From TrEMBL:
Protein name: Aminoglycoside phosphotransferase (APT) family kinase protein
Keyword Ribonucleoprotein tagged: no
Pfam family for this entry, one: APH
Entry annotated with the keyword Kinase: yes
Location of the Aminoglycoside phosphotransferase domain: 38-273
Length: 357
């Protein structure tokens, strides 16, 4: 049996009105029939993702989390429009099928897309998946090459230019995440102003704006269970935009834990397992396959960690406000602190790899 990513029972408080949803789907997807069955993909800290089985058709539904208040975030309509434009020119983006802006159906706007069956790597290698050190060597290389391939998509030919404003992207990112972190701070969160000030003072020269994913990590790709180094689909396009591709790489680096990294960030992924590239190797493979030089890796890594800290702090603030009671969020403030500490360590040592000594 292959470890296909499977949904489980819907979490308490995140149930959907299946009667209203089934009626809405049947009216908009010709040739479909019920009954509708609903399960929920159990991981992910942001948007809620459900598996819908409508007769013999498998769909995925995405909606914003309850209590979400991040300005400009969780825009399911934008994500649906982007996928609709992107899928024809980049087939590894899922095929969006329908969009609903009427919150009365399930309590929030949502969209549905066709399901792609595959394996998702989260905190461990799923049982039954043949992924040893050699497999991780092939996967990590192919994963970075996929990011370079994504950056090679022509945003003009794909009709994607309206999804971002490329000029000044880096400065807007630093200013934006500084403001968002300040707005989400709680009484137990760390002061990251020294990090944000360092980033603002060390902005590199801009690169030409391209399509960027902004959350490119192992658990946002679907792998072939027969050949796990082969990527079948790229998921979670919520933050995709037109911007500087170096910052996309920086986000990937922030998620890319190495053996010996201090703190607890490694428990969220598998990049620290034997066979994977280290972060310096990620840069080298990306440069080789993109055909361009990357800016200061330390800046990009520190930026990615600052952004990741901001994302987790926003989620943690929702938990502290009582907007969600998901127990996974209770300890996120410790990971926010780990992000800040690791960024400062990279800056002090002027390198992005071998930071655990």
């Amino acid at each position: 049996m292959h470890p296909i990513d499977e949904a489980t029972a819907v979490r308490r408080g995140e149930e959907l009105d299946t009667t209203a949803l089934e009626a809405w789907l049947l009216a908009r997807l010709p040739g479909t029939h019920g009954p509708l069955r609903v399960a929920q993909f159990p991981s992910g800290f942001s948007n809620l993702t459900y598996l819908l089985t409508l007769g013999d058709l498998e769909l995925v539904l995405r909606r914003a989390p309850r209590g979400a208040a991040a300005r400009g975030g969780h825009d399911m309509g934008r994500e649906h429009r982007l996928l609709s434009a992107l899928h024809p020119v980049y087939p590894k983006a899922p095929e969006a099928l329908a969009w609903c802006e009427d919150a009365a159906v399930i309590g929030a706007p949502f969209y549905v897309m066709r399901r792609v069956r595959g394996v998702v790597l989260r905190g461990r290698v799923p049982p039954g998946l043949a992924l040893d050190a050699d497999g991780f060597a092939a996967l990590s290389d192919g994963f970075v090459r996929e990011l370079a391939t994504l950056h090679a998509v022509d945003p003009v030919a794909g009709g994607l230019l309206d999804f971002g404003h490329g000029e000044g992207y880096g400065r807007r990112q630093i200013e934006g995440w500084t403001q968002r972190y300040a707005a989400a701070r709680t009484d137990d969160s760390p002061d990251l102003s020294p990090l944000s000030e360092w980033l603002a003072a060390h902005l590199p020269a801009e690169n030409p704006a391209l399509l960027i994913h902004n959350d490119f990590k192992y658990d946002n790709v679907l792998l072939d269970p027969e050949t796990p180094s082969r990527i079948l689909a790229v998921l979670d396009w919520e933050m995709a935009t037109i911007g500087d591709p170096d910052y996309d790489l920086g986000t990937t680096l922030a998620y890319w834990a190495e053996p010996g990294d201090p703190g607890n960030l490694a428990r969220f992924g598998t990049t620290h397992l034997p066979g994977n590239l280290d972060r310096a190797g990620v840069i080298a493979v990306y440069e080789r396959h993109s055909g361009r030089r990357v800016g200061d890796p330390v800046f990009l890594f520190a930026y990615g960690l600052f952004k990741l800290a901001g994302i987790m702090q926003q989620i943690y603030a929702r938990y502290r406000r009582g907007s969600t009671d998901d127990p996974r969020f209770a300890g996120l403030v410790h990971l926010v602190r780990d992000c800040g500490d690791l960024a400062q360590r990279a800056i002090a040592r002027d390198r992005i790899s071998a930071l655990g000594d």
